[in-house]
Design goal:
CATH superfamily of the largest domain: Hexapeptide repeat proteins
Helix content: 25-40%
Number of helices: 8
Number of strands: 17
Structural class: alpha/beta
Shape: elongated
CATH topology of the largest domain: UDP N-Acetylglucosamine Acyltransferase, domain 1
Radius of gyration: 30 Å
Strand order of the largest sheet: 3-6-9-12-14-15
Largest sheet: 6 strands, mixed
CATH architecture of the largest domain: 3 Solenoid
Order of helices and strands: HHHHEEEEEEEEEEEEEEEHHHEEH
C-alpha cells in the first residue's frame, strides 16, 4: 500500500509542473485523495463489503468532486489532474500510467448487466471534458482530445478528437509535401487544408488537391508525347501554374450580371440577334 502511495505521489511531480512538495501534494491534491480512498473502497468491494465500499466512495465524491465506483479497476501511477467532475463507472478498467483531466466521464451506454464501461490501456491521456462511453478499448499510448465523445475503440498510439470521436490520421511526408506544393501553386492556403485536422471540408479539399496533382502529371505526359511526334512544342505545367491563383470573393457584381451605365441596364445581345442583324 505504501509503495503504491509513493508511486502515486511521484507521478504527480512528473505530470504537473505546479507540484512543489510531497506534503503539498498529499494534503491539497483531490486526485490523490480520490485514488487513495478508491483503493480502500475497491479492497472492500472485492471482499463483498459492497455497502461500505459505496459509502466510502460517496464520501470521497463529497470531498473531492470525483466519483469513482469501487468496482472500477485502476492500475498504478494513475493521476487525475484538477479532478472536478470526473466520473468512472463500475466496470471501467484503467491501465498503468494513465492521466485524466477534469470533467472526464468513463461511462456506460446500456442498462444491462455485464461489461458496460471502457477499458483504457497503459499510458492513456484523456483531455478535459472528454466522454468515453461503452465497453470499448482505448489502446496503449492513445490520446483523447478535450471535449471529445468517443464511442468506438481507439487503436494504440492514436489520437481521437471531435464529436463523435474521430481518429486523426498520421501525416504522410511525401503526400503532405506534394499537397502543400500544389496548394501553393494554385493560391490556396495549405495550412487550412492540413490532413491532421479532422474536418470533412478539409478532407474534401485534400482530395481535390490530389486529383489536381494527378491531372497535372498526366497533362505533362501528354505534352511530352505530342512533342515527340512533332505535333506541338512541349510546355512546362509547373511554370504556367505559378501564375494561377484563386481570386478572392467580392461583394461586387459578377461577370454574368447586367452592367449599369448611366442609370440604365445594358444587355449583351444573344447569338440569335446577331444572326438576325
Amino acid at each position: 500500500m505504501f509503495k503504491r502511495l509513493r508511486e502515486d505521489i511521484a507521478c504527480v511531480f512528473d505530470r504537473d509542473p505546479a507540484a512543489r512538495t510531497t506534503f503539498e501534494v498529499l494534503t491539497t491534491y483531490p486526485g490523490i485523495h480520490a485514488v487513495i480512498i478508491h483503493r480502500l473502497a475497491h479492497a472492500l468491494w472485492r471482499r463483498e463489503f459492497k455497502w461500505a465500499a459505496r459509502l466510502l466512495s460517496n464520501i470521497a465524491r463529497l470531498f473531492t468532486g470525483i466519483e469513482i465506483h469501487p468496482g472500477a479497476v485502476i492500475g498504478r501511477r494513475f493521476f487525475i489532474d484538477h479532478g472536478m467532475g470526473v466520473v468512472i463507472g463500475e466496470t471501467a478498467v484503467i491501465g498503468d500510467d494513465c492521466t485524466l483531466y477534469h470533467g472526464v466521464t468513463l461511462g456506460g451506454t446500456t442498462w444491462e448487466k455485464g461489461k458496460r464501461h471502457p477499458t483504457l490501456g497503459h499510458d492513456v491521456v484523456v483531455g478535459a471534458g472528454a466522454k468515453v462511453l461503452g465497453p470499448i478499448h482505448i489502446g496503449d499510448g492513445a490520446r483523447i482530445g478535450s471535449n471529445a465523445v468517443v464511442v468506438k475503440s481507439v487503436p494504440a498510439e492514436a489520437t481521437a478528437v471531435g464529436v463523435p470521436g474521430r481518429i486523426i490520421e498520421p501525416a504522410r511526408d511525401a503526400a503532405t509535401k506534394r499537397r502543400v506544393d500544389t496548394a501553393r501553386r494554385i493560391g490556396f492556403d495549405a495550412y487550412g487544408a492540413t490532413r491532421d485536422v479532422p474536418d470533412p471540408v478539409a478532407n474534401a479539399i485534400n482530395r481535390m488537391l490530389d486529383h489536381i496533382h494527378q491531372m497535372d502529371g498526366r497533362m505533362e505526359l501528354m505534352s511530352q508525347a505530342l512533342e515527340s511526334h512533332g505535333i506541338m512544342r512541349h510546355f512546362e505545367h509547373e511554370c504556367d501554374l505559378d501564375t494561377v491563383s484563386i481570386p478572392p470573393a467580392t461583394d461586387g457584381q459578377h461577370d454574368d450580371e447586367p452592367q449599369q451605365q448611366d442609370g440604365a441596364t445594358t444587355r449583351q445581345p444573344l447569338p440569335e440577334e446577331h444572326d438576325q442583324r
